[in-house]
Amino acid sequence: MRRLRHRQEEDEAEVPLSPLIDCVFLLLIFFLVTTMIKRKEMLIPITLPDSSSAISTKKLDETIIIGLDKKGRAYRTPTKNSEGAIQYTPIDDLVVYLKTLVDKHGQEVLDRPLRIDADRNTPFQTAVDTVDICKLQGFNNVGLRTRKMKR
């Protein structure tokens, strides 16, 4: 009888289920949260660059540069004077200037990079308006950079 009772006690070994249930719930919460984050990431439209080469195929001197001062006035592609300092030439009307660029160089100028160098104190809306004007004139590759303007 004693041996029978001793075997029954050995056979009744239990596995604690509460840590197992906690682990399952933690995994469930983890997968639910990560799938919710994935849904939000899929809503953001992203245009990835081509991975063919890290080296630019276009020359840097082909870039058209337009400067903006802190009052929002536009300046033409900078030139270097005899001392090597960069000088910007004022533009009276940006739309007319861009149209003359297209007339002078043809439609291939629209695919060249156009960079807007805005002064750090240029009003944000002025910089955005300048980018919009360039896009409306047909320029495809427009970028914006802030910097201190030296005149």
What does this structure look like?
The model has no long low-confidence stretch (mean pLDDT about 80). The strands form two sheets. The protein has a four-stranded mixed sheet, with helices on one face. Strands 3-4 form a two-stranded antiparallel sheet. A hairpin with a 5-residue loop joins strand 3 (about 80) and strand 4 (about 85). The protein is elongated, with a radius of gyration of 32 Å. It is built from four helices and six strands. The longest helix is centred in the N-terminal third of the chain and has 27 residues, at about 15-45. It has two domains: about 1-45; about 60-145, 2-Layer Sandwich (Nucleotidyltransferase, domain 5), CATH 3.30.420. It is α/β, with parallel strands linked by helices and about 150 residues long. The termini are far apart.
Reported CATH architecture of the largest domain? 2-Layer Sandwich
Tertiary shape: elongated
Distance between the termini: 106 Å
| C-alpha Rg (nearest Å) | 32 Å
Low-confidence stretches: none
Find the CATH topology of the largest domain: Nucleotidyltransferase, domain 5
Biggest sheet layout: 4 strands, mixed
The portion of residues forming beta strands comes to 15-25%
Number of domains: 2
> What is the structural class?
alpha/beta
Q: What is the highest CATH level, the class of the largest domain?
A: Alpha Beta
Q: Average the pLDDT over all residues and give the rounded result.
A: 78
Strand order of the largest sheet: 2-1-5-6
Q: Helix proportion of residues, in percent?
A: 40-55%
State the total count of DSSP E strands.
6
Number of helices: 4
- What is the succession of H and E elements? HHEEEEHEHE
